[in-house]
Amino acid sequence: MNTQEVIALAVFLGVYAFIITEKIHRTVAAMVGASVVLLVGIVPWEKVPEYLDLGTILLLAGMMVVVNVARESGLFEYIAIKTAKLSKGNPMKVLLLFSVVTALVSAFLDNVTTVLLLTPMLLYITKKMNVNPVPFLLSEIFASNIGGTATLIGDPPNIMIGSAAKLSFNEFLLNMGPIALADLFITVAIVYLAYRSAIRINSSRRAEIEMLIVEMDENDAIRDRELFKKSLVTILAIVVGFFFHDQLGLEPAVIALTGASALLLWSGASPEEALEKVEWATLFFFGGLFLIVGALVETGFIDLLAQRIVSLIHSEAQAIFVISWFSAISSAVVDNIPLTATMIPLIKAMGSSMNTYPLWWALSLGACLGGNGTAIGASANVVVIGIAHREGVRITFGEFLKVGAVIMFSTVAVGSLMLWVRYGL
Amino acid sequence: MVNFSELILRKFRNIAGSRYEEIMKAYQEFFLTEEELQIPTINSILFAIDRFSGKIPDEVFDVVSAYPGAKVEVVYLIDSVLCGLIRETLGEDEARKFREKEEALGREILKKIESTLSELGMNFTMAIIFDDKVEFIENETESRDLLVISRHFGSESVKTHKVSPVVFRIVQGIKKPVIVY
After folding, report:
1. ipTM of this predicted complex?
2. Among A47, A247, A291, A59, which Cα is nearest to A160's?
3. Which domain CATH number covers B95?
4. Scanning every residue of chain A, which has its alpha carbon at the shortest distance from the alpha carbon of B18?
5. pLDDT tens-digit map of A27-51
């Protein structure tokens, strides 16, 4: 290995270590790593635009603006209260409805925002029901990661895969949607079976809770009715736009940015405030990672690794299982964003000797659902456990692992089998 | 040995940032505290009015009628402190005229309230009281379960403040539930 290869690999492994341990902020780690590979000249300046995946970064930025403007209207609190009222104080309905709503919202908006907005309501209801909140919170986490798997915009790995492989929103929905649906039912069933005795309450308590929930008026959550309507219309228009972006010949990022600018124009919301709330740290994290992985591509390390893998894999069916399980187990330990950033050039490099189309779905499956395996596997897990901790509910790493590992293995097994039936037979 | 709790909390701070606090602030108005969930038993209601109280909205009577077994004591308060000031500055005759006018207004207002409470089938008494407004309410609410008061009670005629300073002082000073309309 020459010096540049050693530096590129050392930067990559060092940044990964910092991301896993979070000893320094992951964005700082990625920016430092990117600076090193640029300073040393592993990634030439002229090639920076090629490695910075603008399709991913701009799609994320556009959706962040839309979500931040919509949040001001009280739209998400409205959804949370409405969901709580539909459950009527029945723990099983709370478990099921919150899981379904979380999965549905996560499929179209980012998982962190979804769980940040739904978890306080879920904790409040379970507290009033006097039941153990852990199964409800776990189910919410799993549902969020599963829901995100279903669409192109549901989870950052899917955005990255879609942008890199030029896959459309509808292709994602057709390939990953059925898997997400099947996995969601499996997950709720497993959580229910694991905790069924802990989520029962007597009928008089249920009546009390129902009265309490009925008292809440979802309309009170709407802080700005005009903005609420405009946000809802814009989000729906964006989703419709995603369905047709391929036929229109438009990149998903263009749809998101058009939606964001239309909402800013229509609502009259302050652009300074809206852009202030864009998660710049996340966007720079992505940018840094793209350059660090770009350094591995430049040095030829990724090509070498791809050749080794291809020499060991003899069919697409094998590749589906290897990629889905490798990325699932890895993303249970490492953040799925850097994992996907690394796997994308690897799969692209494998394209010279096999059809990679099914492999993108295997990567999406593993990267998104692997996050359910451990408490640190995905951002949604960390956020829900962090909120629960603040509210006095402890979910330990071990406790999460017991259920999470079962969920991860079951859902990835079902998903990879479905992919194998579709593409491997 | 990795301390996973610390790791998770570190990651949580980095991912959620200040967004969680912002969201919780928005939720606070929907989440009732344990204290708010305790529904107090209401057997006696003090309904305090004065010349500044204005028209009593129907919603207030709706709320009062939600306690059918409670005894409602409606009092029209004439400010004895103000009357004393008039006596000292303008003389006894003016003070007497002021009190008579106040009593006439009080009778008129109480008559309207009487008919509404009768229609609702409430158990009630009426009185016109000549006293220090704040002291009277503070003392009387000790033996009552609920106080109903207009936000303009004790206000000046131009009603500069949205809630009169007298109402602020009463609400801060008493320990019983209060409905401010």
Report:
1. 0.80
2. A59
3. 3.40.50.620
4. A277
5. 999 999 999 999 999 999 999 999 9
